[in-house]
Amino acid sequence: MGANNLVACTTTTGQQYLYEGRDLFARFRETTEEIARLQSKLREGRYSSHRIRRLYRKRTRRRDHAQDALVRDLMERLYAEGVATVYVGDLTDVLSTHWCAEVNEKTHQFWAFRAFIERLSHTAEEYGITVEVRSEANTTRTCPVCGEQDDTDRDGDVFRCLCGHEAHADLCASRTFLEQQAGKEVGSMARPVRLKWDDHCWSEMPHSPERASPNEERTTRSTGNGKLASVGAA
Ligand SMILES: [Zn+2]
């Protein structure tokens, strides 16, 4: 669950996907600020204007477009992997407890979490994939290597544990969540696929060597039936 990434996904087939949300959120916020500016200039007794309503519509349309495209891109990838069930972390219990105001804004307004789950479920159905919403309490602070929960630290996108484990925080949490749901370890992972939105489609970003994870080797493993995936959305 991250402030900078829309979705982090791990599969039991050893794939990881990360959909980056920084630019998208920055634009959403720009529009929100413009709306606030226009509202402050309204004449007394007026609460909205043509221009304000248009900005609201534009903001929503842009978000929905990116969300639609994300869900479809992800489902195509999961379908190709043979995934049968997707577990989605339920953010509602996490939100009320330790999330800062900024992240709350991201989740409630921008990401529209409930709408995302609905969209995900509808699209998954087309691919014959089942979606299950589960609590993901503690996944963000649990170390996947040693199981530590209290002495772990998150700094931006980086997760660190006293045992020496260091990883991408959202991908790490997504993996822990999957292991909790699957009831087993998921083994080594291929290099994560990072995706970026360009107003039309989500496309893969080139790998940056300095950000490479320790689990780089690509492994193809047969996991039998019932392949699983976890999706974290923030
Ligand atoms: Zn650890």
From TrEMBL:
Keyword Transmembrane present in the record's keywords: the answer is no
Per the record, a Pfam family?
A: Cas12f1-like_TNB
Q: Identify the keywords attached in UniProt to this record, alphabetized.
A: DNA recombination, DNA-binding, Transposition
The Probable transposase IS891/IS1136/IS1341 domain covers 1-94
Q: Which GO terms describe its molecular function?
A: DNA binding
* InterPro entries assigned: Cas12f1-like_TNB, Transposase
User: Hey, which family's this protein in?
Assistant: In the C-terminal section; belongs to the transposase 35 family.
- Kindly provide the name given to this protein in its UniProt entry: Putative transposase
Organism lineage: Archaea, Methanobacteriati, Methanobacteriota, Stenosarchaea group, Halobacteria
